[in-house]
Amino acid sequence: MIALAAGIYVPLKIDNDAQGRERTRSCLEAVIDLRGTMGKLKTGYATASDSLQDRLADWDSAINAFERTRVTCRNSQLPKPRKAQSAEALSEQVHTGRERALTESRDLSSATDTLDWTIDCIKNLTAYSSD
Fold first, then answer.
1. Interhelix angle for 87-101 vs 52-72, to 10°?
2. What's the pLDDT at 53?
3. Among 9-18, 41-50, 120-129, the range of highest mean pLDDT
4. CA 69 to CA 64: how far, in whole Å?
5. Angle at 69 between CA 117 and CA 98, to 5 degrees
6. Using the 8-state DSSP alphabet, how is residue 69 labeled?
7. Rounded-to-10 torsion of CA 60, 62, 66, 72
8. Which backbone phi and psi does 103 adopt, to 5 degrees?
9. ∠ at Cα 72 (64, 38), nearest 5°?
């Protein structure tokens, strides 16, 4: 009877651990992609700030990357952003940044805050994966 229980428990435990590692890997990948997208947004303003269509496309990419991160990391314990109440609030700031870009605003504080948060997320996820 004990062998039967162990024969069921051990594979389930191994499978559960593998699923957890895969969720962490997928979340880390999404966070790294978000970080790259935000970096591209900031670089675009530094090199070609007059190209409104390109900057709006960068903002749209950032919004999409943030959404992917939100969905992919929904079961992960990510740290709270430094300058926002939550990741959701930070996402709203990115949406607002895009709307402001329509009026030719160059406020990139939400991109900077997101870059800071992604570093904290990467540290958190890589510390978790090494445990």
1. 170
2. 92
3. 41-50
4. 9
5. 75
6. H
7. 90
8. -95, 20
9. 40
